[in-house]
From TrEMBL:
Key words of the record: ATP-binding, Nucleotide-binding, Transport
Family recorded in the similarity comment: Belongs to the ABC transporter superfamily.
Protein name, per record: ABC-2 type transport system ATP-binding protein
SMART domains, sorted: AAA (SM00382)
The keyword tRNA-binding appears for this protein: no
InterPro entries attached to this UniProt entry: AAA+_ATPase, ABC_transporter-like_ATP-bd, ABC_transporter-like_CS, P-loop_NTPase
């Protein structure tokens, strides 16, 4: 795990982009302090926290991992960056952070150019990106202290308070003295998050933050993302597991085979006007329920032994319930389902079990 703006990372042969260095901008001394000083005037884009134009990465192998991607992450958004394994999410994120140099195209983060302005931008960006970054023989607490010490812009006197607050925020206080190498994958993910949260950030970039977490941990990450967004932090969060993050996203971008195949506000991507109502009834009553729904003008899509599914259209769900009850149908359950983003996702990416490439 690696934290932009928090740790040093030597570029590899492929990763010859701007280095991720210790931050150089001044920062607030306590975790609870206001966000870091804004980027200097003239940093441009007021609307987008991240904007890429024609972003492309061709690896030496010849593979085009990212192909002319125009990403737009509005400020204040929780942007779910989705796509199957190998679709190019991590490579894109690495380019945003200056860890991989694009073959072509442009990247703007918080209104500044990357990787050229990395020194100025990265202190405002917290990142959780897979890879080594922690010392295996140090405890979680000591690892955070080490990362914090590498940040020349924060007050060393408040280092401990920052580390403790970050550990608590990710639920690691009780395990803080355990060595990193004894940590489970989920605990490592949490520590990566803690490192990204050592200081206030304008933008958080989280690459598969729920990887390795149990359902409870996944829920906690979602809650954390919601809290951070409520504080005004823009969050870009990638995942190949749609269901894990779709609930927290205000915006969605879907990657498939290196292309950004869909992007926009959550509501635009899965159209709520296609909401369906699913009525559960005792076996013999499904046809009667179906007739009631048709009578209300709903388009029935499916009738099974145990119920009916129909497109809701503009009809309020309460009217559906009342009509069913009025017609003497025993309603065992009634649920409204907006078209799952999953359907859109599968349609666009053709995702099956196999990795596309
Ligand atoms: N350093 C590299 N050299 C060559 N090919 C690479 C390199 N890094 C990634 N790739 C290839 O680029 C493609 C995109 O990989 P990337 O890691 O960006 O996908 P991803 O969407 O993040 O996948 P996952 O969900 O599995 O993390 C893959 O086919 C991968 O094999």
């Amino acid at each position: 795990m690696r934290q932009a703006g928090a740790v040093t990372r030597p570029p590899t042969a492929e990763h010859t982009g701007g280095p991720v260095r210790a931050p150089s901008a001044p920062a607030a001394g306590r975790v609870t302090s206001p966000a870091p000083v804004p980027l200097p005037a003239g940093s441009g884009d007021d609307e987008a926290a991240v904007r890429t134009t024609g972003l492309t990465k061709r690896f030496r192998s010849g593979q085009v991992a990212v192909d002319h991607v125009d990403l737009l992450v509005p400020r204040g958004a929780v942007y779910g960056f989705l796509g199957p394994n190998g679709s190019g999410k991590t490579t894109t994120i690495r380019m945003l952070l200056g860890l991989v140099r694009p073959t072509s195209g442009e990247v703007q983060v918080l209104g500044a150019r990357m990787p050229e302005d990395a020194d100025r931008v990265l202190p405002h960006v917290g990142a959780l990106v897979e890879g080594p970054g922690f010392q295996p023989y140090l405890s979680a607490r000591a690892n955070l202290a080490r990362i914090d010490a590498a940040d020349r812009t924060v007050d060393p006197r408040t280092s401990r308070a920052r580390a403790e607050a970050a550990l608590e925020r990710v639920g690691l206080s009780a395990a803080a003295d355990k060595r990193f190498r004894q940590y489970s994958l989920g605990m490592k993910q949490r520590l990566g998050l803690a490192a990204a949260l050592l200081r206030p950030r304008s933008l958080l970039v989280l690459d598969e933050p729920t990887n390795g977490l149990d359902p409870q941990g996944t829920r906690e990450v979602r809650t954390l993302i919601r809290e951070l967004a409520a504080d005004g932090t823009t969050v870009l969060v990638s995942s190949h597991l749609l269901a894990e993050i779709e609930q927290v996203c205000t915006h969605i971008g879907i990657m498939s085979r290196g292309h950004l195949v869909r992007q926009g506000a959550r509501a635009e991507i899965a159209d709520p006007s296609e909401a369906r109502v699913v009525v559960t009834t005792p076996t013999a009553q499904a046809p009667a329920a179906s007739a009631v729904l048709s009578g209300l003008g709903l388009t029935v899509q499916r009738t099974t032994d145990t119920g009916v599914e129909a497109l809701l259209g503009d009809v309020p769900p309460a009217q559906v319930t009342a009509a069913l009850v009025g017609a003497g149908v025993d309603v065992e359950g009634l649920a409204v389902r907006t078209p799952s983003l999953e359907q859109v996702f599968v349609e666009l990416t053709g995702e099956g079990f196999d990795v596309a490439r």
